[in-house]
Design a protein that fits this description.
Elements: H1 2-29, E1 31-39, H2 42-57, E2 60-69, H3 71-80, E3 85-89, H4 93-96, H5 108-123, E4 125-127, E5 137-142, H6 143-149, H7 154-162, E6 169-172, H8 173-176, H9 182-189, E7 198-201, H10 206-215, E8 222-226, H11 231-234, E9 237-239, E10 252-257, H12 258-263, H13 268-276, H14 280-291, H15 297-307
Parallel strand pairs: 1-2, 1-3, 6-7, 6-8
Antiparallel strand pairs: 3-10, 4-10, 5-8, 5-9
Length: about 325
């Protein structure tokens, strides 16, 4: 009987030891959690889902908050720790930091490096390498309007405005008020739009703007667009050339809290592989599939990752 009791004790200890080891193994196998947030647009949805899938493949526990909100809301959430990995754009550094020489954000590499440096020093926020895809701001018109008024670039547009042409521009508040946005265009090309010639939206989501442009809502005949908008592949629009390169360069990049990067520095590798594979052409196509073909962002993201051998089927 004594031997049997000793056997039971040893068996109990062994079972508990194995169970503890299994639980420890599970904890070691799961990294995170990582909370991923993006803007509420097609590009945010697609690239956000790509980041979710890639990091899940790498063993991270992911809290998916893609399409979280507008740029200002997402930035506040990152600083507050509500999310700890986001998609952002290098040119946005001009809004985050008080820098006298804003022209630096018109240089792709220097703008990125300055944003990276300032955010790390001031906020312990880490910017990883961006994609080579400039999602910069520009103005677009319908092709029929362009041809009727001989408007192909910002110099032509300035002439049209100064000759008394009818203008109703729809754009975001951040663009309308920015010296590197509409104010910069006006100063560089010598024209001025009154408040009556503007429809200013709080959000920077151009889907609503372009819908108004195409449907001529409230007389809209000019709209803010971004360089990787899917609309540029689908709608019959003319993007006005900006020979003076007024708006900054906006390269999409993964941005994360320093604490997360310090704990998991290896998180950089799969994200770098993804963003190195992106360019303006394929981003436009991806955005177009979601915004205009009606495909789910998750489906578009998965197809791209598998086609580019980034995700194991």
């Amino acid at each position: 009987m004594k031997k049997f009791i000793i056997f039971l004790v040893i068996l109990f200890i062994s079972v508990n030891f194995i169970a503890c080891n299994n639980e420890q193994g599970k904890e070691e196998a799961t990294k995170g959690p990582v909370t991923i947030g993006t803007f509420i647009d097609s590009e945010g949805a697609v690239l956000g889902k790509m980041m979710v899938m890639l990091l899940e493949q790498e063993g991270y526990e992911i809290i998916d908050k893609t399409e979280f909100g507008t740029p200002d809301i997402l930035r506040k959430a990152l600083l507050a720790g509500e999310v700890n990995l986001v998609l952002d754009y290098t040119g946005s550094g001009q809004y985050y930091h008080d820098v006298e020489d804003t022209d630096i954000w018109s240089d792709a590499r220097e703008g990125y490096l300055l944003t990276k440096k300032l955010d790390e020093e001031e906020n312990n926020i880490i910017w990883l390498e961006p994609a080579n895809a400039n999602n910069t701001e520009a103005l677009a018109v319908r092709r029929e309007f362009s041809e009727a008024n001989n408007i192909k670039n910002m110099e032509d547009f300035a002439r049209y405005v100064n000759e008394g042409g009818t203008v109703k521009l729809i754009c975001s508040a951040s663009f309308a008020e920015n010296i590197k946005g509409l104010r910069g265009f006006e100063e560089a090309y010598g024209f001025h739009l009154s408040a009556e010639q503007l429809i200013v939206l709080a959000s920077g989501n151009t889907a609503e703007m372009l819908k108004a442009l195409v449907e001529k809502t409230n007389g809209v005949n000019v709209s803010l667009v971004y360089g990787t908008d899917g609309a540029l592949d689908k709608m019959d629009l003319v993007v006005l050339n900006d020979p003076k390169s007024i708006p900054p360069v906006y390269l999409p990049a993964p941005v994360l809290q320093g604490a997360l990067y310090e704990k998991y520095p290896e998180i950089e590798k799969p994200l770098n592989r993804l963003f190195q594979s992106l360019n303006e052409d394929n981003l436009r196509q991806l955005n177009s599939k979601v915004a205009y073909d009606g495909m789910a962002a998750e489906t578009v993201a998965r197809e791209y990752l598998e086609e580019n051998e980034l995700l194991i089927k």
